[in-house]
Write the structure tokens for this entry.
Amino acid sequence: MFHERHTRSIYKSVTWTITAMIITTVVLYLFTKNLTTALVDAVTIQIVKLVFFYIHERVWNKSNFGQELRKVSN
């Protein structure tokens, strides 16, 4: 059975957070026209999302929903 290590979940969380933070900053800047406000808000939002994404990954890792064990053929 496949088991995802905590470090993999952390790396996935961090790379997604960086991507999402860039997107959020751009969108917020378009609305506020203030880069400082956009960056502060984006960082705050992404820190909260990072924590919840990690928890989400770990909960899903405990489930075998949608997974199947296949035999390796030689």
